[in-house]
Amino acid sequence: MPRAPQTLDAEAVRSWCAGALAALGREREEIDAINVYPVADGDTGTNLYLTLEAAAQAVDETFAGRSGNAPDVAEVIRAMAHGALLGARGNSGTILSQLLRGTAAVLAEGRDGDHLARALASAAQAARQAVAHPVEGTLLTVADAAAGACAGGGELVAVATAAYEGARAALERTPGQLEVLRRAGVVDAGGRGLVAVLGALLEALTGETPVRAAEPAHRPVPAADDCAGGTAGPAYEVIYLLEAGDAAVERLRARLDELGESLVVVGGDGLWNVHVHVDDAGAAVEAGVEAGRPYRIRITHFEVRGEPAERAVVAVLPGEGLAGLCAEAGATTLLARPGEPPSGAELTEAIRRAHAREVVLLPNDGDLRQIAAAAAEQARAEGIRVALIPTRAAVQGLAALAVHEPDRRFDEDVVAMTAAAGATRYAELAVAERQSFTSAGVCQAGDVLGLIEGDVAVIGQDLTDTARTVLDRMLSAGGELVTLVVAADTPASLAATLESHVRATHLAVDTTTYHAGDGAPPLLIGVE
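Given the sequence above, the corresponding structure tokens read:
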């Protein structure tokens, strides 16, 4: 019988991450089904899975290109924690990322059983401190129990075993600690996810699959008012990464605590992950802007999971204003920021979040086509009927969404949306960051570039003049409707000037203008 390992090494950490991801993948749907706290929105298992996926990807990257030489274990552990911080999803995923961060801080100093025991205690304390108003019977309680069960230290496997068994026992007690769980007849969803993660650690050390956590009660998730004693919670979940100093983050905590609930702020060393449930999502984002630089902002409208809708549209969009506009039109949106395209996992998550039997996917970016195709295939494997319309620009997505009719047969709706997108020629204005060669000649840093169908067609020095030239070139081939999408930092006069130009020089052509908000290119143009 092989001797049990006495210390964690880099491969063991990698196996732990991969095993935790696999375990959460197997249990994701079951965990989603018992998610009743803090909001009965049925996504805790998915959020934990996506958080661990980001951690596992970061760990795998530390091994890449090393020609067989394993990285230092401290580097792997830090990568695991950092990846989880960047990829944290939802309330439980954000807390899990802080647990991993607290664990990594101690395990970077030593990897034996005593250090593991100290690491779990440090993690539980850090997670509890990150939550504005800790509640018993949740993931925090399970983390405390895991740390308490192995507080005496000892050999590595013995500590991991005690932590797992302590967490499993605590999970079974959660319905007696939280009334919402007792009424629903389920254990805490986040706590169950943590048990799966600790079980994966034990399996990575012993090679044996531990006894699973208790099976959930097979009951439908109750309505939100049943779970909250008759009071509805906030309407939105807001999550973003934030670059800010400690003092600014403390002020932010106080501000967000006033605005909403379920506040969790994790991280440190200038980088934080902020999670809160609020009614005023804009105010939560503005508070982040006051504190530092928020990015990767995700705003989700809470909808308790009942029967899935028949059909939904999922659209990737640049700029919060444009995303909000499409959300009002009924689309499930995913925000794309400059240099930060969504991952395949995020696209798959958005398809799941749409909660529909049939989904039309609009990537609105030619570079996203392969990623979107992979996400669609993953969703199909989960039983969702997905049609991918290869839109290459946001204006094509707007055209497709404008003719969307959910009462039509699915195939007919997809054909109509595809035809509308294909009939929309598109252009974009951008500002050159450096000197480079383009299809229209050499541009210098600061030049305004007019791109038509993805190729640079015009190089200018003035935004308005360049936009006018691009628009004239597009309309020279005909058109009945011009769509202008302007960013928040684009001069307010640009859209009005272009609208006047179209009226004066292109008779019988209508113009409509949308405001994209922050994060979008200066100007998007569509011609139908």
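Residues 10-33 form the longest helix (24 residues). Try to locate this feature in the token string yourself.
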